[in-house]
Each structure stands twice: as structure tokens, then as C-alpha cells.
Amino acid sequence: MSMTDGDLAAHLAHTAGRILLDVRQSGLVSGASLGKAGDQTANQLLVHALRQQRPEDGLLSEEEKDNLERLAHRRVWIIDPVDGTREYGEERADWAVHIGLSVDGVASIGAVALPALDVVLRSDRPQLLPPGAPIPRMVVSRTRPAKEALAVAETLAAELLPMGSAGAKAMAIVRGEAEIYLHTGGQFEWDSCAPVAVAAAHGLHVSRADGTPLVYNQADTYMPDLLICRPEWTERVLMAMRALTD
User: To which H or E segment does residue 244 belong?
Assistant: First the structure.
């Protein structure tokens, strides 16, 4: 079966999401064990499928031992089988499946499934952004919001929206449910590659918290910070961040 990269990413995200819902609805495991079972089950499908469908590409998965051989590839799939394992295990809706493709270090293709909402957002099929709110809404971690994000929210008089996974937060901006996602607590490449590709395709600003570009497929997969926001808020967020560091 031959598919475009966008179709493959979306198909994988949707299929993994259905499997994860089946695992959760089986009632056979719960809590932390449910999260682990879901992660491992979805990862097996995604890894085998990508190695069969795109054998010439590199691969980086949160649930797979990293192989630095990927650094020799221009094209690298960067995936997170369950982004928001805690939320998935708690049977919440704010978790996601991330299928991203980095080309020359740029998040170029992405699909983010929100399985509990039966939604897949794709970089290759962008839609018009809904109108933004006059008072910005900022998504933050529901368990450990970063102090910088809280400070910027105070500067902008933004409304805080606590939420689970990075993918759910990023897609809240794409879906018009919020205006700003600023994260300074540290993530990894699989946390943001697919969401960044989708967000950028929809016309949103994507960068590090200081405005510099996001670069993927690095030897060290740690990424300290992330900003995804509507263009009309970009400069004010970056100015507020600069004020914190000056």
C-alpha cells in the first residue's frame, strides 16, 4: 500500500488511537499498568509499520531504545505512541498520539490524534484558524505549570487553561480553544515534533521560547522549551519572555 507521508502519518495516528481506546476499554488493566500497556502496544504497531512502509528513513520513538544511526538520515520519523500517559491511564480526554517526520531537522509532516475526541489533525490538510479571543487563553500543565509561563500569563492578563499532554495543548491552539502554549519545563523531540508540524501548517508561530528555531533529529533529544501561539500574540509573548531574562 503506497501512501503519501501525510496520509501515512494520519493513518498511523488514527489506527494507534483506536487500539489505545480498545486497550483502555477492555477493563483488563488500569492506572499505571494501563499507561504502560497502551504505550507498549501502540509502539509495537507504529515501529513495525514505519519500518515496513518507510524502510529508508530513520526512526525515533519515546518507547524505543534510541539508535543514533538515525543521525545519518535526512528524513526521520519522530513518534510518541501515547503523549500524556498519565491522562490516558486516568481515562481523561487530554492525551494524544504523535506521528511526526523531521526533514533536515525541520518538523515537516505531522499528524496528531486526539483519540478520545475522535479527531486527527494533519499538517497536509490545514484548516482556517477559528477567530481568537480578545483576552488570551494560555494552556499550561495541569500538574506542574512552569513559573515562566505563569509570569508571562500575568503580564498578558491571560486566562490559564490547565491541560494534560503537550499534543492536547498544542492542538487546543489549532482548534481555537486557546491562543498561547508556552512551555519552559523541558521536553523531548517526540513531545513536539508532530504538534509543531501541524501547528506551523495551520499558520501558527512555532519556536523556542526565545524565538529561535526548533531543530529536530539531534543526538541529544532534550528540548528545553517551546512556544506555539497565534501570530498576533507572538511578539508580546517573546517580549514578556525577554523581560524575564534581562
Answer: helix 231-245
> Would you list the DSSP string of 184-201?
-S-EEHHHHHHHHHHHHH
Contact 78, 189 (CB under 8 A): yes
Q: Is 117 exposed, middle or buried (0-12, 13-18, 19+ CB in 10 A)?
A: middle
User: What are the φ and ψ backbone dihedral angles of 206, each rounded to 5 degrees?
Assistant: -135, 135
CA-nearest of 169, 203, 197, 194 to 183 is 169
Residues 27-32: contacts with CB within 8 Å, 24+ apart? 30/89, 31/89, 31/90, 32/89
Dist CA 132 CA 36 (whole Å): 37
- Report how far apart the first and last C-alpha atoms of the chain are (Å, whole number): 54
- pTM beyond 0.70, yes or no: yes
Cell digits of residue 188: 523531548
Neighbours of 85 (CB within 10 A): 21
The span from the CA of 41 to the CA of 88, in Å, is: 13
3-state SS class at 209: coil
Give, in order, the Cα–Cα distances in Å from 3 to each of 6, 8, 10, 50, 52: 8, 6, 10, 12, 12
Taking the C-alpha atoms of residue 149 and residue 155, their distance in angstroms, rounded to an integer, is: 10
Residuewise pLDDT in 10s, the chain (246 residues): 589 999 999 999 999 999 999 999 998 988 788 989 999 999 999 999 999 999 999 999 999 999 899 999 999 999 999 999 999 989 899 999 999 999 999 999 999 999 999 999 999 999 999 999 999 999 999 888 889 999 999 999 999 999 999 999 999 999 999 999 999 989 999 999 999 999 999 999 999 999 999 999 999 999 999 999 999 999 999 999 999 887
